[in-house]
Design brief:
This protein has 445 residues and is an alpha/beta fold. It has 2 domains: 134 residues, Aspartate Aminotransferase, domain 1 (Alpha-Beta Complex); 271 residues, Aspartate Aminotransferase, domain 2 (3-Layer(aba) Sandwich), CATH 3.40.640.10. Helix content is 37%, strand content 16%. It has 15 helices and 16 strands. The strands form 4 sheets. It has a 7-stranded mixed beta sheet with strand order 4-12-11-10-7-5-6, sandwiched between helices. Strands 1-2-3-15 form a 4-stranded mixed beta sheet. α8 runs parallel beside α9 and α14 crosses α15. The longest helix has 18 residues. The radius of gyration is 22 Å and the shape is globular. The structure holds pyridoxal-5'-phosphate (PLP).
């Protein structure tokens, strides 16, 4: 706090002491951050007691609303037992129960979970494990990765190397390893008249060529199943996942499904991969896994991969760790969240809510400035057309500001507007969110 700052001026104090994520701090001169002091259900409240509907689940993490009573209670109960304990040489009931529950959700296909705290670390784990597995198999030359164009997997150096978002990569290109980029199956990229399945086949054909060219050197293909979320919510047909799975098997390459954003019921099934009826060799989870309460991430894998590391020599183990690996509080939040899924039939309820979400945004079809209205479960997005984009170069920040003045927390990605609400919105709130978004759009354009 500087000398003349009033103690309750959180904005001045944050700008003097906090370096905010994914932000050009100078832009806060024009749009100051909002100080949130409490939340309830889908609502966030500022220090000035203004209410905002959390239409993007606080960066896609929150599933069952803020200050959820059942999750709060689980954390209070856990606090009375143990807050944290290391997971090397020790274990605790929560991490055991969570790993068993997740294994059951994959019908036993992914039998082991390795824990970290943030999403990027879970991706690092999958990448390292994949290469290490091939090394153990006597194939150390398998050390290259394929990712999809416009894919996002996090921002630590390893995760960034398989992320194709130029804005995030540019400054760090000299620090990161080369990667092979396969074309995206995102259906928006298809020529007019080409349907999503045909486009998925085209993209898979290019993937096949890449695998063929680099045969024997690829360890894994990493992708976001069904929705490239940070890539402007680009959506694609599950057929691509089936074809990718077949190609990975044929070329002896691991498939890493990064479900950090699309897992935990977001797309309508618990795992997005289930829409394609496939299982990957690695599946990463974070964001929604702890219902937006505490940092928790994990990489699940098959018994085949787990068994390869099971040996008498230390060096053949997976020697990777984070201080807060499998934190008991975070696992308690995850277990409470999974209990809500079971007790409230959340996936079934969400199917109904997804239809309400469709209805709430039906107006998009009639607005000729908007294109590519698309939805996958509890994610809905649309884009500005090229002409509107060109005449609104500052669209994202203008829209964000205007949305706040209409009680919505919405952050467009470039010229894509999307909502990814917590699962607790009722149909009336869905409709209100849709109508308010329309208002914001009309005032911004
Ligand atoms: C957010 C995200 C990550 C990174 O997670 P962090 O917790 O932000 O490190 C990785 N992959 C996908 C698909 C994501 O959406």
């Amino acid at each position: 706090m500087t000398l003349n700052t009033p103690p309750n001026d959180w904005i001045a104090r944050t700008l003097s002491a906090v370096w905010h994520p994914c932000t050009q701090m100078k832009q806060h001169e024009g749009v100051p951050p909002v100080c949130i002091t409490r939340g309830k259900g889908p609502w966030l409240y500022s220090d000035k007691d203004e209410a905002y509907l959390d239409c993007i689940s606080s960066w896609w993490t929150n599933l069952f609303g803020h200050a959820n009573e059942r999750i709060n209670q689980a954390l209070i109960d856990q606090l009375g037992k143990i807050e944290h304990v290391m997971l090397a040489g020790l274990t605790h009931p929560n991490v055991v129960e969570l790993s068993e529950a997740l294994r059951a959700l994959t019908q036993g296909q992914l039998g082991h979970s390795f824990y970290a705290s943030d999403g990027a670390s879970a991706v690092e784990i999958a990448l390292k494990m994949s290469h290490h597995y091939w090394r153990i198999q006597g194939r150390p030359e398998k050390q290259e990765f394929i990712c999809l164009a416009n894919g996002y997997h996090g921002e630590t150096l390893g995760a960034l190397s398989v992320t194709d978002v130029p804005l995030f990569r540019q400054a760090y290109a000299p620090l990161i390893k080369g990667v092979h980029i396969a074309p995206s199956p995102d259906h928006r990229l298809a020529p007019q008249g080409v349907d999503a399945k045909a486009w998925a086949r085209t993209a898979a054909f290019e993937l096949e060529r890449l695998l063929n060219t680099h045969q024997g050197r690829i360890a894994a293909l990493i992708l976001e199943p069904l929705v490239q979320c940070a890539g402007q919510m680009g959506m694609y047909d599950p057929l691509y996942l089936q074809l990718a799975r077949q190609l990975c098997d044929r070329f002896e390459v691991h498939l890493i499904c990064d479900e950090i954003a699309v897992g935990c019921g977001r797309t309508g099934r618990f795992f997005a991969s289930e829409h394609a009826g496939i299982w990957p060799d690695f599946l990463t989870l974070s964001k929604g896994i702890s219902a937006g309460y505490l940092p928790l991430s994990l990489s699940m894998t098959t018994d085949t991969i787990y068994q390869a590391f099971y040996a008498d020599t230390m060096a053949q183990g997976f020697l990777h760790s984070h201080s807060y690996t499998g934190n008991p509080l975070a696992c308690a939040a995850a277990l409470a969240s999974l209990k809500i899924f079971r007790d409230d039939d959340v996936l079934e309820e969400n199917a109904r809510k997804a239809r309400a979400l469709t209805d709430a945004f039906s107006w998009v079809q009639g607005d000729e400035r908007l294109v590519h209205l698309r939805q996958q479960g509890m994610i809905l997005a649309f884009d500005l057309n090229a002409k509107t984009q060109a005449s609104n170069p500052r669209f994202a920040s203008e829209f964000f500001k205007k949305a706040l003045s209409h009680q919505l927390l919405l952050r467009p990605i470039g010229s894509t507007v999307y909502v990814m609400p917590p699962y607790v919105l009722d149909e009336e709130q869905m409709a209100w969110m849709g109508a308010q978004t329309q208002k914001v759009l009309h005032e911004t354009l």
